[in-house]
C-alpha cells in the first residue's frame, strides 16, 4: 500500500502563521523600534561608563577611571556586600522552600487544596509590588516591636518570600516534564524514599533548581521597592545606593556600577538558559 | 510463587471510581514464564503495578512464597520491573544503572562490580559499560533495562510490554533472548503483552484477562486448543465459533448436534451447562469440505472467497444460519458454490458462553 499524501509533501504545502505575520506592513519597523528603545539606553549607559570625563552626554576618551573610583568608594563596596549577602541567603532559602513546594504539588499525589496551594505560591507575582512592600513594612514593624529583634534578618526574610515564586516556576516546570517512572524505577531497585530523592529526583531536577536559584538571585539583587521600605538603617543595598546617588544627577561612577550589575544579571540569565537547554 | 488472592483495585473515590481489577485470584508458579494477555485497558499493567508495589490493592492480598507483601513499599519487595519505556537513569552510565539495585542494598563494592560484569555478559553488552544510556539504540537500552532488573537477583521479574517499542526483527530476537534469560536464571518472569502470538510462543502459562477479570489460565496449548469462553477463543486467534445444540452428557463428554448429521461426543469447557443452544470452537485446520449433498456433512453453507497462502488456501464460508467461518484447505472451491462441512469431533470444544 502506498500513501500518496504522505509521499508527496509538495501537494500540501504548509502555510506558516509567522510568515504571514512578518509580511504585515510596519511589522519589522515596529520590532526594531521596540528593540532600540529597550537597549539603546543600556548601551549609552555602558558606553559612558568608559568615558574619561565627568559628562554623561559628551564622549572624550576611553578610560576605566570610573570603575576604579567605584571600587574605591567605601559606600559602594559596603552596599554591594549587603546586596550579595541578602541575595545569596534569600536565594538559598527560597530555592529550598520552592523545591519542597514543587515536590509536594507535583509528586505528593492529589491532596485537598492542591490547586489552592499552587495558586497561593504564585499569587505574589500578581500583587503589585508596592502593595506587598507597604504590607510587609507595617507587618514587620509590628513584629520588630513585639520581638525586639532588629538586623538584616528582616530584609532577608522579605526577599526570601518574594523570591519563592520565581524559584518555584522553573523547578515545578522541570518536575512536571520529568516522568515519575524514573523515581518508580529507583524505588523498585530498593531505594528508600530519601535515597530516591538523593540519587534520582534531585540530580534530574538540578537544571530546574539552578534556573530557579538564579532567577531568585537576580530578582533579589535588583529589588528596589520592597527593600526601600523594609531595609533598616545601615542596610543600604546597591540598587538603593544608586537610587540615592542619581537624585544628585547621573555620574559616570553610577554608570560603572550599573554596568557591573548588568553584567552580573546577564551572565546569570544566560547561564539559566544554558542550564535549561542542556538536558532537553 | 506469587499468590494473588481476591484482589480488587479501584481508582478514584466515590461514584466515578474505575474498577481496574475486580476480585482477581491467580497463582503464578515459581520459576515459570507467566504471561498476562488481554486487550488494552483490561488491567494487565494495574496487576503488575500491584505486584511491584506502585499501587496498593483496594481489597485482597498478594503473597510471595507465602508471605503477604500487598502492603509493602516497592523498595521492600524482592521484585524488579522492566519498564515499557525502560526508565534507565539518564544521568548514570550503563554500569551504574545496572549496579544501582545492589548499591541501594548496600552490597560490598567487589560484589557489585562482579555482578555488573556478569550482567553485561549475560545481555552481551560487555563493551558498553561506561557509555551513557542515551548513546544506546533501543534494543541495547532494552537489554540494559533487563540487566538492571536482574542484577539484584529478584525472586520475580515483572515485564510490562517490554518488546512493544522494538521493530519486528529485533522483537523476534529479544523473544528468544528473554526465554533464554528466564531459563538460565530460573527467576519467575511475569510478562505482559497484548500480542497473542508472542504469548503463545514464550509462555509456560498464560492468564487471559478481560475487563479487570482473569478469564482463563493455562498452558499455551490449553489456551489455544481448549478455550473456555467465546472471549478467549475469539482473542487467541482465528478459531471459528459455531452454534450447536447441547443434548446432554455422556461421561466427561458433551453430546452435541449441529443442524444435520449425527450426534457427536466432544470436549466441553464445563460439564454443568444446561441443554440447549451452545457455542462450539472449531479450528480452521480441522474442517474438511464436502460436496453439498454429502450425507456425512454436519453443516452446510456457501463459499465467500479464498486466499492462497503457500501451504494451502484459507477459505471464507457463510453457513446457512449466517455464521461466517474460515477453513484451511488444500483445494479451495469456487466462490459462490454450495458445500457441506465436516469436522474432526476430537478437535471440537464446547464453550462456556
Ligand atoms: N491511575 C489511574 N487512575 C484511574 N484509572 C486508571 C489508572 N490506571 C489505570 N486506570 C484504569 O484502569 C483500567 C486498566 O488499566 P491498565 O493500565 O491496567 O490496562 P492495561 O491492560 O495495561 O492496558 P494497555 O494494554 O493499554 O496497557 C483502565 O480502564 C484504566 O483507564
Ligand atoms: Mg498496560
Regions of chain A with pLDDT < 50 over 5+ consecutive residues?
A: 1-13
Question: Beta-strand level of the residues of chain B, as a percent range?
Answer: 35-45%
| Number of helical regions of chain B | 8
Radius of gyration of chain A: 25 Å
CATH superfamily of the largest domain in chain A: MetI-like
Largest sheet of chain B: 6 strands, mixed
Distance between the termini of chain A: 36 Å
N to C succession of SSEs of chain A: HHHHHHHHHHHHH
In CATH, the topology of the largest domain in chain A is named MetI-like fold
Family (chain B): Belongs to the ABC transporter superfamily. Spermidine/putrescine importer (TC 3.A.1.11.1) family.
Subunit structure (chain B): The complex is composed of two ATP-binding proteins (PotA), two transmembrane proteins (PotB and PotC) and a solute-binding protein (PotD).
Catalytic activity (chain B): ATP + H2O + polyamine-[polyamine-binding protein]Side 1 = ADP + phosphate + polyamineSide 2 + [polyamine-binding protein]Side 1
Pfam families (chain B): ABC_tran, TOBE_2
